[in-house]
Amino acid sequence: MNANQFLKAVSQLQGWRECAFLLALAERAFPNYALFADAVGMKSGGKMQQLLDLAWGTLQQEAEEAAIPQLLSKLESLSPNVDDYDAYGVYPAFDFCQLLEQALLNRLNPNKHRATEASQLATGTVMDFVEMSEGEGMDEDELVRLFELHPLLKEDKIFQRDVVLALKRQRTPRQEFVDQLRTDAANDGVSNLGISLDS
Q1: Is 199 inside a domain boundary?
Q2: Which of 9, 26, 17, 29 is nearest to 59 (CA)?
Q3: Does the model's pTM come out above 0.90?
Q4: How far is Cα 159 from Cα 21, in angstroms, rounded to an integer?
Q5: Which of 18, 46, 69, 152 could form a disulfide with 13 if both were Cys (CB 3.0 to 4.6 A apart)?
């Protein structure tokens, strides 16, 4: 699947498949939030984990209309304000919150396509991190080359492509499929930035 085929496949995701894609992106990014919350003493990692669990739960049953706004308002209360922190980690943490928000909004209004933007947001998190950690002083051509060859960006591409392919093949959101998708996305607690909850 080349880049154009991937973009087309993402743009065609709808219904539960689109929601599952958004949740998988959020799941992969979750350690970025949990580690940041821990580092700044926000003590909200556990609450956010519960929220993520509830969001995955909405794939299986028709989410009650009233439940989603409650989850969204909870998410807002747990999201860090990027202006309040000096640490770089607030940006990947906030990006995770945006991905989870898109997944919840998808359940509220499934007719609005969100997967393409979310896919770019998730990749953008990785690009920003790579540029911040390794790209200092590089010109544009050097940065492009860094991005093309960087293992984290290669992994992100493979991960997103594999999720899309799995969703295209799956007819219904059966429990074992969803569980496997979530396990793969969780990546043993290693995020899209290559940082781990155990580190």
Answers
A1: no
A2: 17
A3: yes
A4: 11
A5: 18
Q: Indicate the SS3 state at residue 42.
A: coil
Scanning the chain, the segments in alpha helix (DSSP H) are: 3-11, 15-39, 45-60, 67-78, 90-108, 115-134, 140-149, 151-169, 175-186
180 within a domain of the structure (yes/no):
yes
Ramachandran angles phi, psi of 196, nearest 5°? -120, 150
CB 103 within 8 A of CB 23: yes
Split into its structural domains, the chain has a count of 1
What's the number of CA atoms in the CB half-sphere (13 Å) around residue 194?
A: 11
| Domain-located, residue 113 | yes
Model pLDDT for residues 156-185, shown as the tens digit of each residue: 999 999 999 999 999 999 999 999 999 999
Instruction: Find tokens 């958004």 and name the residue.
Output: 22
pLDDT digits (tens, 9 = 90+) for 122-146: 999 999 999 999 999 999 999 999 9
